[in-house]
Amino acid sequence: MNPDAATIAAGAPIEVDLTPVAEGQDIKVFWRGKPIYISHRTKKQIEEARSVPLASLPDPQTDEARIKSGHEQWLVVVGICTHLGCIPIAHEGNYDGFFCPCHGSQYDTSGRIRQGPAPANLAVPPYQFVSDTKIQIG
Q1: What is the pLDDT at residue 25?
Q2: Fewer CB within 10 A of the terminal residue: the chain, N end or C end?
Q3: Going by C-beta distance under 8 Å and a sequence separation of 6 or more, which residues neighbour residue 51?
Q4: The pTM is what?
C-alpha cells in the first residue's frame, strides 16, 4: 500500500528509480508540489562544474557539496528559480545547466547561479540513495 495523494503532497518521501535515466538526460518529478530535476551528468559536465573558480560564483559552493559522494553523476535540485520562483529549463543557457527564460538567470551543471538576477543556487532537496539505482527524496 502506498500513501494517498494528499499524504504525498504534504511531504511524504518519494522514491525514484534512476535506471531509465540515460547519461546526459534529466527527468522532472514532483515532491511537496515542487518540481525536482534529477540530472544524469556526463563526465564533461562534472569536469566543467568542478573547474569553475569559487571566487567567480555569486553564491560560492563546490560541486562536491551539492551531490552525494560516490554518486557524482547525479544532481538533484529543486527546479524553482531563486529569483522570483519561475521554473527554469534544463540543458539551456550558456552553461549547459538550467536557464530561466522569465528574467534570464542561468545556472551551471551543478545548479549554481552563474549569470542573471537570481541571488542563490538552485536548492538541493533532502535525498539519499537507497540503492545504486534508486533515491528517496524527502
Answers
A1: 97
A2: N
A3: none
A4: 0.91
